[in-house]
Write a structure and sequence with these properties.
This protein is of the alpha/beta class. It is built from 11 helices and 12 strands.
């Protein structure tokens, strides 16, 4: 059984899905707002919150040339430079200790995605329980090595990585000491489409890398993460936003507290529905077996009357003989007078090879 332990929480086979609320830059660089988001995420039933630990300078260069401009026609941030977007969305380092402490008070796991090696040192000083490698960073092998060397569990988003690139990233993490790895299927488009999610990859990733798998989801709504749980995802990460905060940087693909509560409820329900391989009916179906079919007398008969299609019938409920005996009974004789609606049993017919089952 493949599992990872993070703090006191087990993640993986046999465990309900771990739901992570990603604050990203939706706090709008307001500390009180960030704390409100954490409180509402906890009230909604999320199990963890995640921050992002970077500065604009640790991610890019302050240049407005075309290469550093977001110009995709369908981007939520079209027209911004990379530097200005990261300035707007970053979480101040000075907040981290307070936000982690507040999350712990509310019973949440709290960790972050570092975006450079210095951020790892900073997060280590705060004793985070685990790390996340963001999808755009999974080719940053020095960062992966630095995180792995902490010996703590690592979540890694797959994003645009090819299988070969993912093998390289996973090998790097394991070589440098990562023993507990969770790969998160991720489509790095914002918002991501359902058809671009390719969730069947989850089962292949689990097999290829012998690790716990999950989903870091940027699609709208709940359908994709619920389907992911049905396909074996043990972790679901979704961006979180306050109700009606439509100006938040990632609002378009983030969940409100009500939606997060539904995500927690429905993914756990989907996980419970997986159950085990079982035939013969669930425990709750046992009482319903009485309403299956069996053979009943359908018209009054006398002793020595022939059994015929006119006087027996396969009906509900299931207190008579099994329907498999119907053709064999035709042409036999009744041993006694019987009223319409009598559940037929072997004592009521004269059959030499009768078997005493129903």
């Amino acid at each position: 059984m493949v599992q990872v332990k993070i703090g006191g929480t087990y993640v993986g086979e046999g465990c309900p899905p771990l739901i992570i609320a990603e604050l990203s830059g939706n706090h709008g660089q307001c500390l009180d707002k960030a704390k409100t988001m954490i409180r509402l995420a906890a009230e909604a039933g999320a199990h963890a919150i995640k921050l992002q630990t970077y500065t604009a300078d640790s991610l890019t260069i302050d240049i407005d040339s075309r290469e550093f401009l977001i110009d995709e026609s369908d981007s939520l941030w079209r027209g911004k430079t990379l530097y200005s977007l990261y300035q707007q969305a970053s979480t101040p380092y000075a907040w981290h200790a307070e936000l982690f402490s507040y999350a712990h008070e509310l019973g949440l796991l709290a960790f972050s995605s570092p975006f450079d090696e210095a951020a790892v040192d900073f997060l280590e000083s705060l004793s985070v329980p685990c790390y996340k490698i963001a999808s755009f960073e999974n080719n940053h092998l020095p960062l992966i090595a630095k995180v792995a060397q902490t010996g703590k569990p690592v979540f890694m988003s797959t994003g645009m990585a090819s299988l070969e690139e993912l093998e390289e990233a996973v090998s790097c993490a394991r070589f440098h000491g990562c023993k507990d790895l969770v790969l998160l299927k991720c489509t790095s488009h914002y918002p991501a489409s359902a058809e671009g999610s390719h969730l069947r990859t989850l089962q292949d990733m689990a097999s290829q890398f012998n690790c716990v798998v999950g989903l870091s989801d940027h699609s709208r709504g709940l359908a994709v993460p619920i389907a992911a749980v049905a396909l074996g995802a043990s972790v679901i990460e979704k961006h979180f936003v306050l109700e009606n905060d439509t100006d938040a940087v990632d609002a378009d693909f983030s969940l409100t507290s009500g939606e997060m509560k539904s995500l927690v409820t429905e993914t756990r329900r989907a996980w419970k529905a997986l159950g085990v391989i079982k035939y013969g009916g669930a425990d709750e179906e046992q009482d319903s077996k009485r309403y299956r079919r069996s053979i009943y007398v359908s018209a009054p008969v006398k002793a020595d009357d022939y059994v015929s299609e006119a006087n027996i019938k396969v009906v509900r409920p299931a207190f008579g003989l099994h329907p498999r005996h119907y053709q064999m009974l035709i042409g036999q004789r009744f041993t006694q007078d019987l009223a319409k609606g009598t559940a037929l049993n072997w004592s009521m017919v004269n059959v030499e090879d009768s078997q005493g089952d129903r």
